[in-house]
Amino acid sequence: MKIKFIAIVLLGVTVASCGSKLAAVRKDALQPAVVTQALPHDTDDPAIWINPADATKSIIIGTDKDTNGGLYAFDLQGKIIKKSISLQRPNNVDIAYGLVINGKKMDVAVTTERETNSIRVFSLPDLVPIDNGGIPVFEGEAMRGPMGIALYTRPSDQKIFAVVGRKEGPTNGYLWQYELTDAGNGKVGATVVRKFGNYSGRKEIEAIAVDNELGTILYCDEQFGIRKYLADPAAKNDTELALFGQKDFKSDNEGIAIYKKSATEGYILVSNQQANTFMVYPREGANGNPNEYSLLAEIPTSTVECDGADVTNVNLGGAYKNGLFVAMSNGMTFHYYNWDSIQQLIDAAKK
């Protein structure tokens, strides 16, 4: 199927009070509803936390990637509402709900801290560290610096696992998977349970996404393709299920977000970083094959050199009744889009 390259320009963009500007935005790019306040150093990856009491008060957690960086919380208007303790080059971040610590369930944000070879765990929404100063990863390896992270919640027992990637690694076993555990005294620990994942050696593996309902992991082997594996370490199956998108990107295939239309259907959105577009694939696969992925659409956005993205289908109120898509951009900001504007372009490309 021939893919149509389609975009529209939306009016009424809201820019947070810091005065962030959209640099090098293409004329045909989809415009955001909100651009966040700028961070001090270098944005890299966002994650959306849904407030269980009131979804309209949900927040975006974003990384500021620097030696004196940290996690920042933004409201739905793009304003900074909280900062974590200082971190040494936090890279990617993901969120999980209901981690049991000291007999109580809590929501957590987990980020990689590259300069300390650790992952860091914070309670939500207060961004308080609960990890005894950091959990070492890739111990015993020559190549350790962690970058990408995604959290998998196993439906059968609600155990939570962190899938961690690194700046460089071997051609097999590049990703390590850790079970998050109760370390006592209200703190979180982690135990490595799996080492898996092919790597081309082209560049690095940073963007990782988990589909809890389908039980799969997707990750970007940059400049090579998007790889797919089972998420549950108990399956003891490290066979690569799919490799796709190899001819679809200008250079780097980067941030991954999964929009869920139902328990099994939806879209996989992957940043075409140097083209400032997002490539869209069917979450459920194509032609009746869950491991075959055809390109549905290419959507140019206002983001520049996008590293990371996240999306939700939850009604957050206002412009986000069918969900919110958020992506980082050069200029130390994150851009929010209402999902309807994305869906409109996907539908147009299918015609």
TrEMBL record:
Q: Which residues form the signal peptide?
A: 1-23
Q: Specify the domain of life of the species encoding this protein.
A: Bacteria
Show the SUPFAM superfamilies listed in the entry: Thermostable phytase (3-phytase)
Q: Does the keyword Signal apply?
A: yes
In this chain the BPP domain maps to 15-346
Q: What UniProt keywords apply to this chain's record, in alphabetical order?
A: Signal
The name on file for this protein is Phytase
Q: What is the species listed in this Swiss-Prot or TrEMBL entry?
A: Flavobacterium zubiriense
